[in-house]
Each structure stands twice: as structure tokens, then as C-alpha cells.
Amino acid sequence: MGKAIVKLNIATYAYEEYVVQVPCEEDDVEEIIIAKAWKLLKEQEGGSLPYGHRTAEIIKRTE
To answer: How many CA atoms lie within 13 A of 55 on its CB side?
Structure first.
């Protein structure tokens, strides 16, 4: 099992930017990894995230 580092952005008035590390399998597609990253961030932030346009980018994957 590997890990992926994902940069998440929420375009609020303050432009929120987060970087999280999530576990992933070698054959996981990007959409699965990004969904895991949003879920992890939501848990870390206490169950809710601010409103705004959201973007995500996988910075690095390790095996």
C-alpha cells in the first residue's frame, strides 16, 4: 500500500489551501484518491468545510 500527497483548495474569501496525505493502492484512479483526501480533510476539520469552489491536485504518489 502506498501513499499520496494531495493539495486541496477551497475558494472562499480567504482562499483556503490544505495538504493531506492519504493511503492508496497502486491501481487507484485519481478520483478515488481525491475523494479520500476530501473525506480525510472533512474529518480533520471537525465534520464540515467552508463553502466555495473546490479543486484538488495530486502532488506525489509513493508505492
So the answer is: 8
